[in-house]
Batch of 2 targets.
Target 1
Amino acid sequence: MQPCNACRELVGKPSSVSPHGDLAASGVSAIGPSGHTTKISSNWNCTVCGSWLYQNTADGTPPGEWVMGEHQRASPGKA
Ligand SMILES: [Zn+2]
């Protein structure tokens, strides 16, 4: 599946850039022990092309940048 233009344009942009209009919020990813987790990204699913985009925090990899992934890395139970 090909990412749509809006998704492709977002990848590599600073996380301060807002998600495009066809991205649906789908939880967050965090690392660390329970109760002391560090948020590493907000997760978004494109309703047009189905791509997963991750809006990384300063603790993400790479920090503070939009990246694209194949599927959601965390947050079980969400269909
Ligand atoms: Zn898309």
Note: The pocket of zinc ion is lined by residues 3-4, 6-7, 46, 48-49, 51 (CB under 6 Å).
Target 2
Amino acid sequence: MSPATPRPTTAAAAPAGASPAAPAALGVEGLTVGYAGAPVMADLTLEVPAGQIVALLGANGAGKTTLLRTVSGLLTPRSGRVVLDGEDLSAVSVEDRVRRGLAQVPEGRSVVAELSVEENLHLGALWKIPARRARRDAVEAMYDAFEPLSRRRRSLGHQLSGGERQMLSLARALIAEPRVLLLDEPSLGLAPRVVAQLLDTLRDTARRTGLTVLLAEQNVTSALSVADRGVVLGLGEIVADAPAADIAADPALRHAYLGF
Ligand SMILES: Nc1ncnc2c1ncn2[C@@H]1O[C@H](COP(=O)(O)OP(=O)(O)OP(=O)(O)O)[C@@H](O)[C@H]1O
Ligand SMILES: [Mg+2]
């Protein structure tokens, strides 16, 4: 799906003055967060080094979405903090976290159903690349990275297949040149071939731009195949944090926490 000869990256297409996508490290320190009742996780600490893809794994209900929503600022922790490039984000609003380069693609996708693919992409880039011509270049770069979308430019969001919608969600996030991307189950409901394409594009983009990714997934094998590291959540704590290949090769861990 990625082009043989890449076009200019969106960073190169950005107008003068826009900051390039410098990699950022993400940290979670001593995080306790939950809803009413018992916390979902207590005193959780996690590092996502700049430029790495970390797969966040764990059974249904383990707390993956809760953790991502806390990092993006949608949930407020009871204690602990989220740190971006060494800076405490506790007092930083959701919007300002996005401005600092933290983007989230939520579970269930984020496409505007009434707008075309092209309009969705322009909308995703609007605040970051206000100049229309530069934005058009950035949109073209996304069509190169997500080739199936280029054949659906005029299709409305609600006319897309699940896989196309998921590609558009990811493209919409990437076009704003985030430094850190939080992805919640991008494989949900997709055929294995589409999942592989999507994650390959994610990995290519991360390698090219230095994007840092925290990737929550139920699709353990696919996630570990593109990740540098894997973190397994179980019973409110991290039960494994190791190179992706080591987690994939650990049968006891797979049986106990990953269900295969
Ligand atoms: N809005 C909410 N109100 C109350 N409890 C919630 C809420 N959202 C999630 N929970 C609970 O918090 C726990 C963690 O849920 P979370 O959605 O973070 O899990 P997850 O790892 O993302 O699971 P899945 O793989 O099914 O998406 C679960 O026990 C869930 O029931
Ligand atoms: Mg979830």
Note: Residues 192-209 form the longest helix (18 residues).
